[in-house]
Amino acid sequence: MKTSDIAALLLLGALWGASFLFMRMGADEFGGMALAGMRAIGAALCSAPLLLSRQRRIEMRTHWRPIAIVGLANSALPFILFSYAARSLPAGVSAISDAIAPLLVAMSGWMFLGEKLDATRASGLVIGLTGVVWLVAGTVGFSHDGGSLGWAMAACVGANVCYTFGAHFSQRMLRDLTPLSVATGSQLAAAIVLLPLTVWMWPATTPGAASWLAALGLAALCTSLAYVLFYGLMARVGASRSMAVMYMIPVFGVLWGLLFLHEPVTVAMAGGCVVILFGVALTTGMLRFRAAPTLNEAAAEQG
């Protein structure tokens, strides 16, 4: 990877990690539904210049149904679920939970789509899911408010289930479309769906300036700009290398929560993060163990 691509990858990880900080900052005053709607609507407005491309407009008109489904699965529903979770969970915990998406993609592909898992990937799946249990138990089990935290963790898992469905669906139904067409169309679909719900659930008290800045950061930086960076990276370095950003989101999410919200880094957070990322590295093939040589191979090397 070029230096510019590495810089773009780091920036993308920082932006997506910051999304949990911004949701934590704005969720209380906006409410989960209104904040999710502002994120989708703002991102659609920021992405409007991309509609100037005639090819993108044609692709969106021709494939609007599957693009709308991706908009629901990858944007509208996860935005709502993560915004709801942000009212109870620290930003760092929500960010760590986002790392389970590759695990769910691999597991669902094996269970429902007939994709094969070798021993290394299967081990990574077990290790990663163990880390999830560790994180959930450490976050919920030792809190006086375990009920609401439990629902918040369930919302994070639900958001990642949505991402998993969106990944498989877009891979099968939209693989021939240009990535920016899918990104722009899906944000537009999410905005259309969430607009009436945002109006209906708008808070009675006008949110303060900090909450508005958080909503703007979510829409413009963590969604619109981040998707442009992500799809540009995929075009230059490929999907597998671009997915390395999943390892950076928890790190940046915990860092921003520590720096700006003074959230403590607990043993459960640190341990769960390490175990989950190790499992993700094995499951996605980023980390491989070299098989021990057979007797014949060892003899050949010595000879």
From TrEMBL:
Q: Which organism is it from?
A: Dyella solisilvae
Q: Which Pfam families match?
A: EamA
Name-wise, this protein is DMT family transporter
Q: Where are the annotated coiled coils located?
A: none
- Indicate the segments forming the EamA domain, all copies: 7-136, 151-284
UniProt keywords (A-Z) are: Membrane, Transmembrane, Transmembrane helix
Major subcellular site? membrane
Naming one, the record's GO cellular component terms include: membrane
Gene3D superfamilies cross-referenced by the UniProt entry: 1.10.3730.20
Q: How does this protein sit in the membrane?
A: Multi-pass membrane protein
Compartments, record wording: Membrane
Q: Which top-level group of life is the source organism from?
A: Bacteria
InterPro entries attached to this UniProt entry: AA-Vitamin_Transporters, EamA_dom, EmrE-like
Regions crossing the membrane: 30-52, 64-85, 91-113, 125-143, 149-170, 182-203, 209-232, 244-261, 267-287
